[in-house]
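Lab meeting tomorrow. Please check the following:
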Amino acid sequence: MNKGCKFDMAWVGKCNKEAVNGSDYCKEHSKLKCCICGKQATHSCTWASSLSCGAPLCDSKKCRDKHGH
């Protein structure tokens, strides 16, 4: 049995859809890349004002800092 997708969606939480191809991510999130470095995105940006940012980011502190939110 496949495990659930571990992508952390801003203001929602873990995706938990069925992970595909032995990865940690579902079909949708396995294709999502970090908007800074292009590696696998692990979460979406939670920064919000009137709308939430939602940019896909990896776990790298460098990418989070460069994104600036």
Notes: The beta strands are 8-9, 13-14, 43-44, 56-57.
